[in-house]
């Protein structure tokens, strides 16, 4: 039985600078793991300085593109961007009447972010009388909303609510008026109206020049989530959160010389730049001294997570895992971002225990999952091929499954009794050796390992045992830096 692949078709213009239009739609859908096909309405010459030229695609060829995709590819949602002429808008509405879809998302692109005109004024009546009545959601910014309403001034959230209601009266089932251009506000406030209730969706304003393509991306994210089966309000909230995260991540990217740069849909460009000191995605030798943080120990010694991590990497820890079971998500995320900066300044990988959401949000180097956590194969699907994935294993069977699921390494133990995990069955040196001998992956030993027994662990005589992981031996001590140096000196001899 074939599985349903969520599919969006974007009907929009091409942006040679890659920040907006068709290019942004493709990247946004890919980032949301939805297939995207395209119908190009215009080809633009533009960059971060603005739009230098626009070449419209002939309407009959736009119609051919539309028919080719809709007649064959089981499209669930159509998203529109740049509809530069009335004939193109008319043929779109005519074609959509012939092909059933789940939803139509309209981003009423009339001006570029830099102020360049992207649609003929004759298109406006077509929006009002032909396209909006068949639209499931329309996503105008303040200028576009004003244009749809005959130049109505919009200067406040109250004005946006009025605009949303008036635009809804034109026919669309849902309206999202975007307030990103609202002056004198520390927050980006969008107003969503479903015909019955208003919702004010607020997020902190991100201070960055890299905002080119946010409108296209937001509409495409909404379309992608609708194609997956989300409700309209849920799709809008998810899309807004995606934009906020991508803008925050991309705030300091330097692409182009103009006033409005693009942002990074995949949260990867900055990571590649910052991680240039690490030549490989994963080096098994990084497992030599694996430092695992602990909430209770940090609290006991009055340390922040960042302070504990900084001392460990200064002492020579070769890889760090943040295992903070009791930390609130927002606090954990903020701490993880700080720890990531510390680790990358030392060229040390940072992994998150269990919390794939936190790993994605802070762009950590990977995750470590237990047998009762999300399976490694699903973690790999979510994180992609470049991230590091470790799995806790006690048996040869579990180690074999970790290899099948695409893990990079195994954390094997507990080798000795430990106080950091309740009811944790120990496997001893014999169990560790058995797992190592049958595993196709590099192994790091964990569980009760300290200066008194690390030597005998490293001397079990199996080549794929690459190091030891320590919790209490490092973080339940008065001086983390000294203890880390001592343990590193011991395991580094083997």
Automatic annotation (TrEMBL):
NCBIfam families: HMP-P_kinase (TIGR00097), thiE (TIGR00693). One of its GO terms (molecular function) is ATP binding. Transmembrane segments: none annotated. Essential for thiamine biosynthesis. Bifunctional enzyme that catalyzes the phosphorylation of hydroxymethylpyrimidine phosphate (HMP-P) to HMP-PP and condenses 4-methyl-5-(beta-hydroxyethyl)thiazole monophosphate (THZ-P) and 2-methyl-4-amino-5-hydroxymethyl pyrimidine pyrophosphate (HMP-PP) to form thiamine monophosphate (TMP). It is found in: Plastid, Chloroplast. This is Thiamine-phosphate pyrophosphorylase. Pathway: Cofactor biosynthesis; thiamine diphosphate biosynthesis; 4-amino-2-methyl-5-diphosphomethylpyrimidine from 5-amino-1-(5-phospho-D-ribosyl)imidazole: step 2/3; Cofactor biosynthesis; thiamine diphosphate biosynthesis; thiamine phosphate from 4-amino-2-methyl-5-diphosphomethylpyrimidine and 4-methyl-5-(2-phosphoethyl)-thiazole: step 1/1. It comes from the Eukaryota. HAMAP family: TMP_synthase. Residues 289-474 form the Thiamine phosphate synthase/TenI domain.
């Amino acid at each position: 039985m074939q599985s349903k692949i969520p599919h969006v078709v974007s009907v929009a213009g091409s942006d040679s600078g890659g920040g907006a239009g068709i290019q942004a739609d493709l990247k946004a859908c890919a980032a949301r793991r939805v297939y995207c096909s395209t119908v190009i309405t215009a080809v633009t010459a533009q960059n971060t300085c603005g739009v230098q030229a626009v070449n419209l695609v002939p309407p009959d060829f736009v119609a051919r593109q539309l028919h080719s995709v809709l007649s064959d590819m089981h499209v669930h949602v159509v998203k529109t961007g740049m509809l530069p002429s009335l004939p193109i808008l008319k043929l779109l509405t005519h074609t959509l009447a012939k092909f059933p879809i789940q939803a139509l998302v309209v981003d009423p692109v009339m001006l570029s972010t830099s102020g360049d005109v992207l649609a003929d004024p004759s298109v406006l009546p077509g929006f009002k009388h032909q396209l909006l009545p068949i639209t499931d959601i329309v996503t105008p910014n303040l200028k576009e909303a004003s244009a749809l309403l005959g130049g109505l001034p919009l200067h406040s959230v109250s004005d946006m609510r009025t605009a949303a209601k008036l635009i809804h009266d034109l026919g669309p089932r849902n309206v999202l008026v975007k307030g990103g251009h609202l002056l004198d506000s520390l927050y980006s406030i969008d107003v969503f109206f479903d015909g019955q209730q208003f919702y004010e969706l607020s997020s902190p304003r991100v201070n960055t020049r890299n905002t080119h393509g946010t409108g296209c991306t937001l509409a495409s994210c909404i379309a992608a989530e609708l194609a997956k089966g989300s409700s309209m309000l849920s799709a809008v909230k998810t899309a807004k959160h995606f934009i906020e995260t991508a803008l925050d991540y991309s705030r300091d990217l330097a692409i182009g010389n103009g006033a409005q740069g693009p942002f990074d849909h995949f949260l990867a460009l900055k990571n590649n730049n910052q991680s240039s000191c690490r030549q490989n995605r994963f080096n098994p030798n990084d497992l030599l001294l694996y430092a695992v943080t602990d909430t209770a120990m940090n609290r006991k010694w009055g340390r922040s997570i960042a302070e504990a991590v900084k001392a460990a990497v200064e002492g020579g820890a070769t890889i760090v895992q943040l295992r903070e079971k009791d930390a609130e998500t927002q606090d954990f995320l903020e701490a993880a971002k700080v720890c990531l900066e510390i680790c990358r300044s030392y060229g040390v990988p940072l992994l998150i225990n269990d919390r794939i959401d936190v790993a994605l949000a802070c762009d950590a180097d990977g995750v470590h999952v237990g047998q009762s956590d999300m399976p490694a194969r699903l973690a790999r699907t979510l994180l992609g091929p470049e991230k590091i994935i470790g799995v806790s294993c006690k048996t040869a069977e579990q180690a074999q499954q970790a290899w099948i699921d695409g893990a990079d390494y195994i954390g094997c133990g507990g080798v000795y009794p430990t106080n950091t995990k309740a009811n944790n069955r120990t496997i001893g040196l014999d169990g560790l050796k058995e797992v190592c001998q049958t595993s196709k992956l590099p192994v790091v030993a964990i569980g009760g390992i300290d200066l008194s027994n690390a030597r005998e662990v490293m001397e079990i005589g199996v080549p794929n045992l690459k190091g030891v992981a320590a919790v209490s031996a490092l973080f339940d001590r008065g001086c983390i830096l000294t203890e880390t140096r001592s343990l590193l000196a011991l395991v580094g001899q083997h």
